[in-house]
Amino acid sequence: MLHITPIVEEYKNKLEQNKNQNLQDINVLIQKLELSINTLNQLRVLLRTKECLFTQEAEIYFFKRIKPFVNGRIKYFLKIRKFIFERPSASIKKQVKYVCLLIDELEKQKIRNLEFYHYIRHNSASLDHIYFVRGNCKLNFPVDTSHYFSDPEFSTSHDNLAAQVVCYDLLSVYYQKELHALTNQNTKVKRVEDNPLLSCDLSWTASKTDLVELIYALHSAGSIKNGQVEISKMAEICSELFDLNLNNVYKTYAEIKNRGKDTTKFLDQLKRSLEKRIDNDNAK
């Protein structure tokens, strides 16, 4: 395992460095896929050298954990690429239906190999010497026959199934996030349909801090519902109205309080601007 560890650690580090990249970007996806394929090929070549000699315990660990970790991500990135190319450019409702269909297919795949999924989930080890040692093939056990057509020096009867478990976990999270995003988008569309005013392009062009200052001023004066409305609710409404994210309004308010002399900088500016406009209008 001495020669294998640096390859795997480098792979994990690169994945971690780029974990926040958007997988909807096909170029990002291809980079991650190429990284995974190259890593798997490095491991394949290494296993053929004399320097890489396994004990059975190390062999089991490699084919049960290490290879599926990489191969499972290859399967995952390939599935996402297929998803991006094949997802319908249609209504949100149809896209939701499509994602739900993919989730159902994923669950059916899991059910077909449910016994093995439980075996991996519960970290069982009683059959490791059969599942994850090369050259073993007990047909009285569930077998993934795809390994017959792959490299026998780099495959066991169940390492591909173990990779499918890894892929399943990653895809489940990805599909659920997509479903959640589409549901939120659909809710927003319905709100706009119910209230066309929300579809107006009202962009807030002052700073977010200025808006928070205004929200707190209105709340303090009891200008909205006699002050009997939560700050968070006012912030949520303003965020939706102006299509922006106010983040943590309570933290922003704390920063406003700590300004020193100019605690009401924006309100003072509003007052001056309005007075100037009134003066100009009266001068006409």
General description of the model:
This protein has 284 residues and is mostly helical. The protein has helices at 4-17, 26-47, 56-86, 92-112, 114-121, 128-131, 159-194, 208-220, 231-242, 249-257, 265-283. Helix content is 67%, strand content 0%. The longest helix is centred in the middle third of the chain and has 36 residues, at 159-194. The N and C termini lie far apart (86 Å). The mean pLDDT is 85.
Q: What value does the average pLDDT take? A: 85
Overall 3D shape? elongated
Please compute the radius of gyration using only Cα atoms: 29 Å
Number of strands: 0
Structural class assignment: mainly alpha
Strand content: under 5%
How many domains, as an integer?
2
CA-CA gap between termini: 86 Å
What's the total helix number?
11
Low-confidence stretches: none
User: Helix content range of the residues, please?
Assistant: 55-70%
Strand/helix succession: HHHHHHHHHHH
For the report, how would you describe the main beta sheet?
Answer: none
Which descriptors apply to this entry?
single chain, 284 residues, mainly alpha, 2 domains, 11 helices, elongated
How do the helices and strands line up, and which of them pair or pack?
Layout: H1 4-17, H2 26-47, H3 56-86, H4 92-112, H5 114-121, H6 128-131, H7 159-194, H8 208-220, H9 231-242, H10 249-257, H11 265-283
Helix pairs in contact: 1-2, 2-3, 3-7, 4-7, 8-9, 8-10
